[in-house]
Write a structure and sequence with these properties.
Blueprint: H1 2-20, E1 34-43, H2 48-66, E2 72-75, E3 83-88, H3 102-115, H4 118-130, E4 132-142
Antiparallel strand pairs: 1-3, 1-4, 2-3
Helix pairs in contact: 2-3, 2-4, 3-4
Length: 143
């Protein structure tokens, strides 16, 4: 509660000094923002190698087969997560209005082809997720 009061006081002070400079406030949009979806992933102990085997043998092959740009992947050497995966959101925040994007459909079809059937593709996705301890998603805007 103390932190909340401190942040509130700072916000009020910031707003008050901002208004005192007499600058006109106006609405402003970003020009051509590029949005990404970021997944911060922590694997269960000793399971990263098994998970990465699925990524290399199935997920990356499905990306290639579907003609979809693969995500950018960062393998962490410290901190709370083992890996950060970043997907470009081609349609920006409009992507969030889909239950399943057209690229997701293409990817799942390719994943079924690579795995040998839809049921086997779903089994590989389930197996991968069984190796994940924590998965947190975030949205970010490139500048």
């Amino acid at each position: 509660m103390r932190t909340f009061r401190t942040l509130l006081a700072i916000a009020i002070l910031f707003m008050a000094t901002g208004f005192s400079f007499g600058q006109e406030m106006k609405a402003e949009k970003y020009e051509d923002p590029q949005w990404v979806m970021m997944a911060q992933i922590k694997f269960k102990p000793m399971k990263k190698d098994a998970a990465m085997s699925i990524v290399h043998n199935y997920f990356m092959k499905a990306d290639e087969d579907a003609g979809i740009q693969p995500p950018t992947t960062f393998h962490m050497v410290g901190g709370d997560y083992d890996m950060i995966v970043v997907w470009d959101m081609k349609e920006g925040v409009e992507t969030l209005n889909y239950k399943m994007t057209p690229d997701d459909v293409k990817w799942m079809q390719s994943m079924a082809k690579v795995a040998g059937g839809q049921d086997k593709a779903m089994a590989k996705l389930d197996e991968f997720m069984s190796y994940v301890d924590t998965w947190e998603n975030s949205l970010a805007r490139r500048e």
